[in-house]
Amino acid sequence: MEKRVVFQSRWLPYALVAPQLAVTLVFFFWPASQALYWSLLIQDAFAARTQFVWFDNFRDLFNDPHYVASFQVTAVFSILVTVIGLALALLLAVFADRIVRGARVYKTLLIWPYAVAAAVAAVLWVFLLNPTLGILTHLLRALGYDWNYLLNARQALILIVITAVWKQISYNFLFFLAGLQSVPKSLIEAAAIDGAGPARRFWTIVFPMLSPTTFFLLVVNIVYAFFDTFAIVDAATNGGPVQATSILVFKVYQDGVQALDLGGSAAQSVVLMAIVIALTVAQFRFVERKVQY
Amino acid sequence: MVEQRPLGAVVSHLVLIAGVAIVALPLYVGFVASTLSFDQVTSVPMPMTPGTHLVENYGAVLLHGGTAGSKAPVGQMMWNSLVMALAIAIGKISISMLSAFAIVYFRFPLRKTCFWLIFVTLMLPVEVRILPTYKVVAELGMVDTYAGLTLPLIASATATFLFRQFFLTVPEELAEAARIDGAGPMRFFIDILLPLSRTSIAALFVIMFIYGWNQYLWPLLVTTREDMYTVVIGIKRMVAGGDTAIEWQYVMATAMLALLPPAVVVLLMQRWFVKGLVDTEK
CA B106, B110, B114, B115 torsion: positive or negative? Predict the structure, then answer.
C-alpha cells in the first residue's frame, strides 16, 4: 500500500529519518555486527590478543555439556510457561466471557500483573516461597511437603515457572477474552438449539474458532519465555542451584558479563538471534494471515 | 438464545474470584509485609493483617534506602526510573513518528533502504545483543548517564511500524486538501497528522512507559553508581545484600513503590493500554 499524494522536498525526508537511523546504526547495527564478528574470535581476558578461529566457538558451544543442559532447561521452562500460562488464561477468559454482569471488574482485577516488572514479580514470589520465612513455605510444611528452592533443582524451576506464568497471565487473558468475544453468537445459539451443552459447544465451536488467537499467543509466549524472563531468573534463583535454572538468555549474560568469555558469549548471542529470527518468521508467516482481531 | 443456568453463573464467579485471589496474593502479602516491623516480618508465620509501620517503612526507604545491600535512597531511584520511562516513551514516539512520516509521505532515493534498516530491528531484542551494545555505550562514555540508559532501548521499530500502519489509513484527501491550500509538509504534519494520531500516541505511551519503567537487564549493566540505579535494580541489590539478613519490610515497601506507577498507568488508562497491546503486536 502506497500513498498517491506525496510531498516534494530534496532534504526534508532525510532530516526526518535521520534521528531514527542514527540511533539504529549506532545502537543496533554496530553492536549486532560486533556480535557476529566476535563469535568468530577467541580473545584472552585482557583483550590483548585475538585470534580468528572461524566456527570453533560454535563447535565448542555445542560440545559443552553446560550449554546443552541450558538448552534443555530452556525447552522445559518454555513449554511449562507456555502450556500452563495459556491453559489458565483460557480458563479464566472462558468464564469471564460467560458472565453477564461484572465482567469489567474481573478484567480490571486481572490485568494489573502486566504492569509489574519481572524482577519485582520474582521478588514477591521469592518472599512467598522463601525457605525460612515464606508464608506458602509454611503452608507446604504444614502439609508435610518440604520446600527449599535454594537446594532443590526442580523446586527452583517451579518457582521461576510460577513467577513467569503469573506475570504473563494478564496478557494471555486479554487476548483470549478478545478472541472469545469475536466468536459469532449465532453459531453458539444454533448449537444450543441443536441441544449441545456448554462443554460440547466449547470444544466443537469456540475452541477451533479460537485457534488463530491460540497460535499467536503460543509464539508470543515462547518468545516471552526465551527472552523476557532473564529478570525473573536473575532476581529469583540466579541460575541456581548448580545451573538448574540457567536458561539460554541468562547464560549469555553469565558467560559474557560475569565470566568475560567474549567469543563464547557472542556465539551464544548469534544462536539466540537465529532462534528469534526463526520465531519471528514463523509468527509472520502463520499468524499475520490468520489472526482476526 | 443460549440457556441461562443460575448454577453456571455461580461457578463462573467462583472460578474468576479464585483467579483474582491467586493473582492478588503476592501483592497482598507484599503489602502486609511492607507495613510490619522487622521482628514481625521475620516471625514464622508472618501476620496476615497490615501492621502499623507503614509510614515509617515507606519514609525510611524513600529517604534513606534499606540498610543492608543497597544504601541509596529509593526516592532517587524512583526519579531515575521516571526519567528513563518518560525518555524512552517520548523519545521512541517522537523519532518514530518523524521517520514514519518521511517513509509514508515522501518519495526519495534510498527510501526502501531506510525502511529495511529500521524494520530489521524488530527481529532482535536487546537481551540478545547485550554485551556488544554495552561495549558501544562504554566506548561512547555513556555508562552511568541517562543517555546511555535510554538511547539503546529507543532503537527499535515497533513504534515506527505502528505509525506507518496508521498513516497509511489516513485518507488521501486530507493531504491533497492541505497541499491545495498551500500547506507545507511540516504544517500538514503538525496541524493534521498529529491531532489524528492522538489515540495511537496515548496507546503507545502507556505500553512504552511500562516497558521503560520495568527494564532490568540493561540498567543492571549500564548503571554502576548507586545514585543512577532504577528502582527495579535497587530491589535486586537489596535482596542480593550478602550475608546480612534481608530486611524484607524495606524490600517489600520498595517493591510496592516500584509497581505503583506502572500499575496506576495501566488501571487509569485501561482503554489505551488494551489498544496499545493489540496494536504493538500486529
Answer: positive
